[in-house]
Design brief:
The chain is an alpha+beta fold. The chain is built from eight helices and 20 strands.
Length: about 350
């Protein structure tokens, strides 16, 4: 379907996108996840045909889109700010793209009715958009994008302006709509919960490059770099030095992580300490893997997030008190080498 190859773009002489290459298959939702300013929205504009890359190609089913104007690409784009027409009602907003296709009036009415039902807005056709809630307006924007039966859907931080509960609800609804419609989609966000909920495949974007690609489970299970692990918040990244016996000496303790890399004594390597599975042990009988003073305890509904003075945090079923000196034993799977 969509094939992006070696895409480059810069602003004010500074590189913004540096050789991006990825594909989107039929029915697949690909989420580009990255911090603000990482080039996500610019990438969507390039795919949509609203901007031109300096190098590289964008193809749809082997057709080079470089000479195809935005309106002829048959791609749908959903924005964070909805971009609805305030002087038109819901049905008129949804029908806008269909009227541009010169479809018969009855065909437009039937299609508008169908997509409003698809986004749970049946009966809203005559409502004015400025009378709707933020979530309802975002559903109208989605219906308008779906109505012309686009070849590709693109989402630019569409849930960023909504409160947490509504965002969670719309994430689940949007996931169902995308899977049911089978329209391939590119979804850009800085919110990892959105990306991991919606994506079939996640692309981590950092400094204009894709630094990790895979299913949500693959990316969470193996971030691949210290930056990715910190960005995702999967645990605590500590810098260590390889000892002659192969163990890694860090400020948090000495570890023997399972690692397929060939490290030399004295080499600096980052380790990821995952927070799950840690067990409290008696400091007077065993040193454990990590020892330290508790500086913060936060309840997380099912357990406690316990942070030590060295910055390492873990999830424990029972809460020690701030100021306690504790010793923790880690399962082997909780220690991961990132370099």
């Amino acid at each position: 379907m969509l094939d992006v190859n070696d895409l480059w773009k810069s602003y004010d002489g500074q590189p913004l996108l540096c050789g991006l290459t990825f594909t989107v298959a039929e029915g697949e939702t690909v989420c580009l996840l990255g911090a603000s300013g990482s080039g996500k929205s610019t990438l969507l504009r390039l795919i949509a045909g609203l901007e031109t890359p300096e190098r590289g190609s964008i193809r749809w089913e082997a057709q080079d889109l470089s000479g195809v104007p935005a309106h002829a690409r048959a791609f749908g784009l959903v924005f964070q700010d909805y971009a609805l027409f305030p002087h038109l009602n819901v049905a008129e907003n949804v029908a806008f793209g269909l009227k541009m296709q010169d479809l018969p009036r009855e065909a437009i009415r039937e299609r508008v009715e169908a997509v409003l039902g698809q986004v749970n807005l049946a009966g809203f056709a005559g409502r004015r958009v400025n009378e709707l809630s933020g979530g309802e307006q975002q559903r109208v924007a989605l219906a308008r994008a779906l109505a012309p039966r686009p070849r590709l859907l693109m989402f630019d931080e569409p849930l960023g302006a909504l409160d947490r509960n509504l965002r969670t609800q719309l994430m689940e609804e949007l996931r169902g709509i995308l899977h049911t419609s089978r329209v391939p989609a590119v979804y850009v966000t800085h919110d990892q919960e959105e990306a991991f909920t919606l994506a079939d495949r996640v692309l981590l974007l950092h400094e204009g490059r894709i630094v990790r690609s895979g299913t949500p489970r693959q990316v969470w299970g193996d971030p691949g770099s210290a930056w990715a692990a910190r960005f995702l918040g999967v645990g605590t990244v500590v810098e260590g030095v390889v000892r002659p016996d192969g163990k890694v000496d860090t400020p948090a303790g000495v570890f023997a992580p399972p690692c397929g890399h060939d490290h030399r004594a004295g080499e600096h390597v980052p380790l990821l300490l995952r927070p799950g599975g840690a067990k409290l042990v008696d400091p007077s009988k065993a040193e454990g893997d990590i020892r330290g003073v508790v500086v913060d305890v936060a309840y997380r509904q099912e357990d406690y997030r316990v942070t030590l003075a060295n910055g390492v945090f873990f999830f424990l079923p029972d809460a020690p008190a701030p100021g306690d000196w504790i010793s923790l034993e880690l399962p082997p799977a909780a220690i991961q080498c990132l370099g």
